[in-house]
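To: structure subgroup
Subject: Chain for Friday's discussion

All,

I'm putting the inputs and outputs inline so they're searchable in the archive.
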Amino acid sequence: MGIALALSAALIYGAADFFGGLASKRNVVWAVVFVSGVAGLATALISLPLLASGAPRRLDLELGVLIGVVGLIGIAALYRGLAIARMSVVAPITAVIAAAVPIVYGVVRGERPSLMAAAGIALALGAVALVSRTSDEDVAGDVEPQRAGLLLAVVSGIGFGLVFVLLAASSRSAWPLVASRTTFLICTGLIVLALRPRPLLAPGTILQTLLTGILDMGANVFYLFSLRFHTPVSIAAVIASLYPASTVMLARVVLHERLHAVQWAGVACAFAGVVLMARG
């Protein structure tokens, strides 16, 4: 059951990232992050009874603040990367890094990855090189945005990986989510006030942005539920990192994104690497 919940979280995370990246193509990224954060906070508050959350614990609130900060960096980097580069490339790279962070954390704590997990890490690193390849067409066009998108994907992956680790260290109630989203909103609210984008969101992107926040927080709830079924964090986090599957699918169907054969091989290696890490 825990595996199924983590996989559900992955599918929902991927849809949230697609809509967030789509909205960021027409808006200031911080405006998208702020408005989606409002929807996310409302979703977190609704989830309090679902996660049987009693009185908040100090550790949960402290972890929530940390999650809010690193999550903000991760989401802002991801949405910007999805907006300027190919979603089909940015999303898998983010996932590879996010999946690797909990494994590295486990190694630091004395855990040793199995041979299969080690093979998954190696395959994932190879995926980074493959999807980073550019063709002559790219060189003549948008190679710089693609490179910037890859850098943002790495930053985002580190942020998301830390979120997975910090959530696992909490009591797994909804309070860390509420605290993280409150911190998230305070920080982004100050940034939006400084930037003063006019309008805050472009017409036709409000629903996309609200849906982004609802889906993202909903995925967090599914992830916490998977941990409550005693799924090891190294497994739950890696499975949740399969979210690019839905992002890539939506980008292909809705945006008609095209990748070169070598880049498709890289995407496949990224997914295979995550699966091997999960099975290991």
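Points worth raising on Friday:
The first helix runs from residue 2 to 24.
The CA atoms of residues 80 and 112 lie 35 Å apart.

D.
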